[in-house]
Amino acid sequence: MAYLAAQINKGLIKSIRIDGSGEVVQYLKSMLVFAIVGALHDSLGDSLNYVNAKFLADEKGIETSFGELARSVYKSEIAVKVTTDKAISNVAGTVFDGSEERIVNIGGFKTDFKPKGKMIIFKNTDVPGVIKSVSTILADENINIADFRLGRGEEGDALAVILVDSEVQKSTLDKLAALQTCLMVRYAAL
Questions:
Q1: Which end of the chain is more exposed for a tag (fewer CB within 10 A), N or C?
Q2: Which residues neighbour 5 within 8 Å (Cβ) at sequence distance 6 or greater?
Q3: Is the pLDDT of residue 52 over 90?
């Protein structure tokens, strides 16, 4: 989840926070190390591991913390917050039936998808025709949509998580970003 949050929010990482509810609360300190490794993976590469993660974060002045979620509708839930010099990314997940991992929230938008594969995160104004416009661009680029999850916000916006079968080039992201309804578009691979 931290790796996803860092891919959504490209920038200089200032802080990483992990919160949990349910049975996982007792493991939050250990899980924070996994969150640090995920969030810093792209910037530090092979020099980063589970042994030195907290040390490297401290050395770079990255604030790290953990705590309990105020409330959750799930038996157990983990929420990761990555703050950069540009924005804040929040990603939350849970596990159903002991083995079904799911991302259930991105930036306050409810969703439900397996955290695996290539995906486009597309935030837009919530108006008719957006799905058609996005699908047309992807079809024109010969990118197959494996799954399309949509969450609606309370402020007239929406967030789509579009799982795709192939890598997405910057030129495709630029075409999506050029849509009048686009508020944000990112590519992530897990």
A1: C
A2: 38, 39, 80, 81, 82, 89, 90, 91
A3: yes
